[in-house]
TrEMBL record:
Protein name in UniProt: Flagellar M-ring C-terminal domain-containing protein
Alphabetized PANTHER family for the sequence: FLAGELLAR M-RING PROTEIN
Keyword tags: Coiled coil, Membrane, Transmembrane, Transmembrane helix
InterPro entries (alphabetical): Flag_M-ring_C, YscJ/FliF
Lineage, top ranks: Bacteria, Pseudomonadati, Thermodesulfobacteriota, Desulfobulbia, Desulfobulbales
Positions in coiled-coil regions: 113-147
Top-level taxon of the source organism: Bacteria
Residues of the Flagellar M-ring C-terminal domain: 3-67
The keyword tRNA processing is annotated on this UniProt entry: no
Positions of transmembrane segments: 91-109
Amino acid sequence: MNPVGTITKLSVSVLVADRVKVDKDGKPVSTTPRTEEELKSIENMIARAIGLTPERGDMINVLSMPFVETDKAIIEENALGTHPLYEYLPFIKYGLVSLGILFLYFLLIRPVIKTMKGEVKEHYKTVEQLEQEQRQALENKEEEEIILPPVDDAITTLRREVLQNHVPTAFIVKNWIQEG
């Protein structure tokens, strides 16, 4: 077991900028990658600076890449084509969101508000309206009075049922006796 803080292995990657050729105005025209000799000398310099030990399994990787966009790279990027529609995408996005909110308002929120207002109007009636409804209800009751048959007719009907349906009547009487 190694003590705390012991380095077991180092892996280092370094990116080095390509050489840039500039025009008379100082604008970058083109880039050329570094030579193998330059990359090797940079690798050796870094290995000595960090204490690289190959026996320990340490590794170093040095690459050359362009860090500055040249006019040629910009021209190639534009040549790939950027459709003018892409400039209006943020406006289109906000327009679609606005349309969605309008649909939500007109299809959901507005009808709910209308029904709620209608329910409120129905709940709060004036005294005159309530009196008129009561008068109409009383008039309808007078017209539809329930006529009950006389008590003698009910007893006669019940006796007739008992005589015609012996079995259900016997079960009912039997249950009354058991309960009582």
